[in-house]
Amino acid sequence: MFGLAMEERVTKASMRPLACCLLVVVAFVVAAPGCAAFNPRLLFLVKPDPIVLKDHHGVVLTGNVTVNVLYYGRFTPAQRAVVADFVRSAASAPPPDQRVPSVAAWWSTTSLYRGGGARLRLGVQVLDERMSLGRSLSLDNVTALARAAGHHRGAITAVLTAPDVLVAPFCMSRCGIHAHAGGVGAHGKARYTYLWAGNPAKQCPGQCAWPFHQPVHGPQAPPLVPPSGDVGADGMVISLAALLAGTVTNPYGDGYYQGDAGAGLEAATACAGVFGSGAFPGYPGKLLKDPVTGASYNAVGLGGRKFLLPAVWDPTTSQCKTLV
After folding, report:
1. How far apart are CA 83 and CA 96, in angstroms?
2. 227, exposed or middle or buried, with CB in 10 Å at 0-12, 13-18, 19+?
3. Which candidate, 278, 275, 288, places its Cα nearest to that of 238?
4. Angle in degrees, 0-180, between the axes of helices 231-249 and 77-91, rounded to the nearest 10
5. Would you say 250 and 195 are in contact if contact means Cβ atoms under 8 Å apart?
6. Cα maximum dimension of the chain
7. pTM for the complete prediction?
8. Is residue 270 assigned to a domain?
9. What is the number of other CB atoms lying within 10 angstroms of the CB of residue 114?
10. Full residue range of the structural domain in which residue 86 is found
11. Is residue 260 one of the residues assigned to a domain?
């Protein structure tokens, strides 16, 4: 189950993209070297092989992990609140009433991986509304932004770009990446991790905001109502969630993945297109629906905010774990 990615090799040893997000394809797909792709609604012509993520015994992120967020371009306060509430909700303790599908319970699946998982904490939030590097970015620019945001060991810097910011591979081959930069040091001590996700509202909602927007190809079922009412923001949270899960379980390309190094499936990318039980190509699965707004969701966060989050591969069952 690979997502289509354009042929791309990053020459700098300090920057190796590890995961891509949300590209729609119809028939068959391949992954470019150096990039493991995540497709929210991958359409199969044949039954996929069983999913088994191999532990390659490299570094995984455990313990307290700070998530710093850099908003590049214009984000409304409401959009920033959706992102911040998601990270804070993942960092909270699961509610005692397990009948409530919580964001914290969704994140707790990563604790089943070697090392016991990472405890997320929302760190600094940086606004770069003036777009210091211009409106068109390369992946090298993304690395520079992550570095400038104050990267450090034990933290993940999330670079989020506004709908009108062009990032070289956005829409053409991916909707986000997670990567690492810095030196190679023993056990990854000199390295730091970061990710990029774009808001797909204007550039490619049919590719990167499914199931909140009708796809470019494939079955044309009516799109779901997004929990926050913002297609771009909720689509970006799906990417962010998948990338965070991939970052902590495979931060430097030698953790958990299936397939070739640098082009394999990871914790959430292995479950692309699955949001609820009974999911199949073109159908996200059984979901909950807000009786007032009609919005579809599968997890509830702090303050009752609702989210739609991708399934995560459970290493104890070798299955994609859903909350509903």
Report:
1. 24
2. buried
3. 275
4. 30
5. no
6. 53
7. 0.86
8. yes
9. 13
10. 19-321
11. yes
In the structure encoding, which two tokens stand for residue 300, read together? 């509830």
For the chain, the average pLDDT equals: 82
Report how many domains make up the chain: 1
Average pLDDT value for residue range 16-25: 40
pLDDT tens, position by position, 234-253? 999 999 999 999 999 999 99
CA–CA separation, 17 and 239 (whole Å): 15
Residue 254 has pLDDT above 90, yes or no: yes
Query: Do the domain assignments include residue 239?
Result: yes
What is the Cβ-side half-sphere exposure of residue 186, based on CA atoms within 13 angstroms? 0
**pLDDT exceeds cutoff 70 at 191:** yes
Q: Give φ, ψ of 227 to 5 degrees.
A: -60, -40
**Cβ 63 vs Cβ 154: under 8 Å:** yes
Tokens of 321: 């774990």
Phi, psi of 174 (to 5 degrees): -170, 165
Pair of tokens at residue 52? 């088994």
Q: CA dihedral in degrees (208, 212, 213, 215; nearest 10)?
A: 60
Is pLDDT larger for residue 111 or for residue 34? 111
Query: Which residue in the block uniquely carries the two structure tokens 């391949």?
Result: 30
Is the predicted pLDDT of residue 54 greater than 60, yes or no? yes
Q: Is residue 1 part of a domain?
A: no
